[in-house]
Design a protein that fits this description.
The chain is α/β, with parallel strands linked by helices and 329 residues long. The chain contains twelve helices and eight strands. It has an eight-stranded mixed beta sheet with strand order 1-2-4-3-5-6-7-8, sandwiched between helices. Helix 3 crosses helix 4 and helix 5 crosses helix 8. The protein is globular, with a radius of gyration of 20 Å. The N and C termini lie far apart (66 Å).
Length: 329
């Protein structure tokens, strides 16, 4: 009887873990975002696409706009708390889902480049009549934010990089994977693999149930009958990230820059394929943050001890305080 009770408890727990996962629509049609979502049409490489975005207007505007750029494995919805707090301080907050992500179109035949994503974002801002922005990018969004600031320095008033990837050039160490290789790997993804990856590299094996709020919508794609579309788009994005480093251009940034770096982060693309002796050195954010600060003139570095890849999710109060202080300078 004792063993039956234990078995029943285990099956119940496993079922409870699996039950929340539902198929996610290709453009997250069945996922509720925290703010109204609008669509901006784009014509890219012969395809008619739409870029989804949220535009949160403050009740008492201070005349400033903050652009929030999401990471590779997250839609723009994870900026909810950040956007609400910034709007309370008078900032207009614009949160796009980049092409290939979230509620935006999922093309499988275009060439993805950070220059293209930056151009799309600039076109959106032009359409919204936004002439100056503070740009905050997290993870892959940090690479995009850097490229955006390099391409459009006149409209980028300040740049904030929250645990950006691309602080090192992985292709000098990690063997190259083709888009087909990335695609094959993405086809094997499921909730458990995604959670295990995030728990190991993002949260240093310190998972909390509330993190599922941001994982389940993305993991739900893996049980969509058209998941191959998502897998191909993801593969194209991985190729962009791997082959288009920004690490050599940080010294060209001329605007004020804030680096917010969670010190437990160990994210590095393709780390498991690197030579064993190099794996421990990749994704060492305490070292990478300090090296990056030295490359950017007068950059401010905020190191968050005992925090991983997502400070604005894992340690929000410690993230928002230096962010607000930097914006108000």
């Amino acid at each position: 009887m004792k063993y039956l009770i234990i078995l029943f408890a285990f099956v119940t727990f496993a079922t409870a873990q699996e039950k929340p996962l539902q198929p996610t629509g290709l453009q997250m049609e069945n996922i509720a975002y925290p703010f109204p979502v609008k669509e901006f049409p784009l014509r890219i490489q012969g395809e008619d696409l739409v870029m989804a975005y949220m535009d949160l207007q403050p009740q008492k505007p201070n005349g400033k706009t903050v652009l929030l750029l999401h990471g590779k494995n997250f839609p723009a919805m994870y900026w909810e708390q950040t956007a609400n707090d910034l709007a309370k301080d008078g900032y207009r907050v614009i949160m796009p889902d980049q092409i290939g992500f979230g509620k935006s179109s999922k093309p499988t035949t275009i060439q993805f480049t950070f220059q293209l994503l930056a151009q799309n974002t600039k076109a959106l801002l032009d359409n919204l009549k936004v002439a100056k922005v503070y740009v905050l990018g997290h993870s892959m969004g940090g690479m995009l934010a850097t490229r955006f600031a390099l391409m459009y320095p006149d409209i980028t008033e300040k740049l904030i990089l929250e645990n950006p990837i691309g602080l090192e050039d992985w292709k000098t160490i990690v063997p190259y994977q083709s888009v087909d290789d990335w695609y094959a790997g993405e086809l094997k993804q499921d909730y458990k693999k995604m959670k295990d990856y995030q728990m190991q590299f993002y949260y240093d094996n310190k998972w909390k149930p509330e993190y599922d709020k941001w994982l389940l919508p993305v993991a739900g794609w893996t049980i969509n009958k058209e998941y191959a579309v998502i897998a191909k788009t993801s593969a194209l994005a991985y190729d962009m990230i791997f082959t288009q480093p920004v690490v050599y251009e940080f010294e060209n940034l001329k605007m004020p820059v804030l680096l917010i770096i969670g010190q437990r982060d160990r994210t590095a693309l393709g780390k498991n394929k690197a030579p064993e002796e190099a794996q421990e050195k990749l994704g060492n954010y305490p070292v990478l943050g300090r090296e990056t600060q030295k490359k950017i003139k007068d950059a401010t570095l905020v190191e968050l001890d005992n925090v991983g890849h997502l400070p604005h999710i894992e340690a929000y109060d410690r993230f928002i305080t230096p962010l607000k202080g930097f914006l108000k300078k």
